[in-house]
Every structure is written in C-alpha cells, then in structure tokens.
Design goal:
Blueprint (H helix, E strand, L loop, with lengths): L1 E3 L9 H8 L7 E3 L3 E5 L6 E5 L9 H16 L4 E3 L10 H4 L9 H10 L4 H4 L3 E7 L2 H15 L4 H4 L4 E2 L2 E2 L5 H8 L19 H16 L18 E4 L4 E8 L4 H19 L6 H5 L3 H14 L4 E2 L2 H5 L8 E2 H12 L7 H10 L2 H9 L5 H17 L6
Helix pairs in contact: 6-10, 10-14, 10-15
Length: 392
C-alpha cells in the first residue's frame, strides 16, 4: 500500500510512483531488472513481482528488498511510503478508493460496473501470489491435488489482516473473508475458494472455466473478462503460462517474511507431489466441501484452529488424531524444510510467535484509538523498509 508518510492514510499515488521510476511517463509496468513494478486495480497499490520465473528462492528476498528501498526513496519525494499487511486498518474504501485511471483500464471499469469495486474486498486487500510451474496433464494433476489439500492451512502461516474499519474484525484473516464473498453476484467465479477436484486441463475447463465464462457473459457483453484470470478460487490454473497461481496468502511485514512463508509451502508441496506420504489417487479423492469447511475455521482462528481429522492429517504423513494448525506447521516443516534453508529463521519467528495477524493483535492490545493503531503500523512500515520481522 502507498500511504502518507506521516498520517499513514492511504495515498492514491501509484501513477506518480511509476512515472517517477519511468522518467516521467505513466506506465502500467516497469522493468527494474530482476523485479518489475506494475499498477493494480486501486490507485494506492503497487505490485512488485519477479520479472519472470525463478529457478530457486534463494536470493529472491534481496531483490525484493532492494526494490522496496527504491520505491520508498521515490515515494519520499511526495511525502509517501510503502505500508505492509493485507488490509489497511482504518481505510474507508467507499470514500477513499480511486481506481487506476490510465491506459488499459477497460477491465477495471468492467469489474467496477459488475461488482462495485469500492468495498474492502476489492480496494483494501493486498496479497502475495505464488506461481508454481507444471508441464503437461500429469504434473498439473499432481500439483493441483497437493495444492488443494494444503490451501485450507495457509492462513495459519500468512494471516495478517485482523483489523478493519479501525477495530478487530474477530477474524485473523479478514482479507480472505472479503475475498470469499466479494464476487457473490456471480458465485461460480470464486466457488468455495477451494478448487474442484479437476486434474487434467480438459476436466478443469469443463468443471470450472466453462462455468465462469457462461455465468459472466450476461454481465460482460464485450467479452473483456473471458480469460483464465477471471477464476478467483484460492488457487487458479494458468494454462496460458503452465502454472498454478496460489492466491490465498496475505502479504506480510517484509519480503523476508513473505519468502519464508513461500519457502515452507514449496517444501511441503514438493513432498506431496512426489507422493512421499500418500499416492496421488488418495490425495485427489478428498472432497472439496471438507476442505472448504476447514478453510473457514482457519480464516477465523489461523494458527489456533484445530484439525481433528486423522485421515486428513495422514495425507501429510502425520499420525496424530488432532493437531492445532500451528502444531501442523511445526511438524510438517520439520519433515520438509532443510534446517539450513535461508528462510528458516524467519519462519521460526512465525511458528514461535504466530502469524502476523496474531502479532498485530498482541501489539494493539485492545487499544483501537487511531493513535495506538498508528504506532503499531508505523513499526510495521519500519519493518518493511528495513526487511525485519515484526515481533511485538
């Protein structure tokens, strides 16, 4: 998020930032070397992403952190800075939202006309997207089966949005609750957030994409939204680039924390896709409804959610009858993540102190006056600028 440097109110200045980086021209995407910058739906957001796929995660954090510094330096010229976490704690989206007004804005205008993009679920949600590559139907099926099973437990690591409208929402991952319902006018677009059990491209197109395209058509006469990215499940197949994109991750306090979460997820998915604990057929047989129900619990309670399903835990090689989500991640990372993984110390902070949403609530300590919230989020801005973990 781009915010005023002093007040931390949102500042719709992404066009000014991108113009400053491009020598004065407002561009929608700028190549900054290993990292590229681009606009988003709302004018107070900027996206940083790897400039194409990377073969390994080692070193990626340094590239992101360097670009955070570059962006903050440019933003400083007009009294702004970057702020982390998945939701601004006191933004009024109905009053403050400004959509990207430049260039290829037809898609944004179509979304706004159909869904109304002034609410929290559209303009006050920041996430980390993880794209994992596959080659052909066999790899797609294995990867999709593994991702479906792990999706419900991702907020236990990544939840960073416990506050909205200046108070606690009662959920650790409020962003996902808004994400879950923000396109309810066309329910098939999001479905149950957990994808249906489709393990070939043909099955995926028949079970998911064809329904998306059919149901949006009456609202989209010009066909602007008839593309794979219309699908808004928690993980979506991008056959156009042979990848599955995981969308459930709240953004963290700094790139180090984001990469720690991503590294833990990748380690587990590699083991699952290799059938380390259970064969593909068993992984693929898990019902969507059961996974969706677990996701709702983890959205609410994050690390303290209880998994009381021995069969589900067995899919990950765990023999306990019941575990908290925190205990699950502690156990599974011991099995899959190398002790010398460069992101392990940062992940240990999350495992020891809870996801960022839990740490934010501890720091706020039931004090929701603007000054108290400002003090916590100033610290979070400092963590982003310095590349440091937030510990209350």
């Amino acid at each position: 998020m781009i915010v005023d440097r002093e007040t931390l109110d949102i500042l719709p200045a992404a066009d000014r930032l991108l113009a400053a980086a491009a020598g004065g021209r407002v561009l929608e995407e700028i190549d900054m070397g290993d990292i590229s910058w681009s606009n988003e739906l709302a004018l107070h957001l900027v996206e940083l992403k790897t400039n194409g796929p990377v073969a390994a995660l080692a070193g990626v954090v340094d590239r992101f952190q360097e670009n955070v510094g570059k962006a903050n330096s440019l933003l400083g010229r007009f009294g702004a800075r970057l702020m982390p976490t998945a939701m601004h704690p006191w933004m009024d989206p109905h009053r403050e939202t400004r959509l990207w007004p430049h260039g290829n804005r037809d898609i944004y205008e179509a979304y706004n006309r159909i869904f109304g993009c002034q609410g929290h679920g559209w303009s006050n949600v920041q996430s980390t997207h993880l794209n994992l590559a596959f080659c052909g139907d066999e790899e797609f099926g294995r990867l999709h089966a593994a991702i479906r099973l792990l999706l419900p437990l991702l907020p236990a690591l990544a939840a960073s949005s416990p506050l909205v409208d200046g108070k606690a929402s009662g959920l650790l991952d409020t962003r996902l609750e808004y994400y879950r319902v923000n396109q309810r006018r066309v329910p098939s677009i999001t479905g149950s957030v957990i994808p249906e059990p489709a393990f070939t491209r043909q099955a995926y197109e028949e079970m998911i994409l064809s329904h998306n395209y059919r149901d949006i058509a009456p609202h989209d006469p010009d066909g602007l939204l008839q593309f794979e990215w219309l699908n808004s499940r928690g993980a979506i197949a991008r056959f156009d680039r042979s990848a599955i994109e995981i969308r459930l991750l709240d953004i963290q306090e700094c790139p180090l924390a984001d990469l720690a979460v991503v590294s833990a997820i990748v380690a587990v998915l590699r083991a699952m896709a290799a059938e380390r604990w259970q064969p593909f057929a068993r992984q693929a047989a898990t019902e969507t409804a059961k996974l969706a129900e677990l996701l709702l619990t983890v959205i609410r309670e994050a690390d303290r959610a209880v998994i009381a399903d021995r069969d589900y835990l067995g899919l990950f090689g765990l023999t306990e009858a019941k575990l908290s989500a925190a205990e699950f991640w502690q156990a599974i990372t011991e099995k899959t993540m190398a002790p010398d993984d460069p992101y392990r110390p940062a992940l240990d902070v999350i495992l020891r102190h809870g996801p960022l949403g839990r740490r934010i609530l501890k720091a706020v300590d039931n004090r929701f006056a603007r000054r108290e919230l400002w003090e916590v989020y100033v610290r979070l801005c400092g963590c982003l600028a310095a590349g440091e973990m937030f510990v209350p």
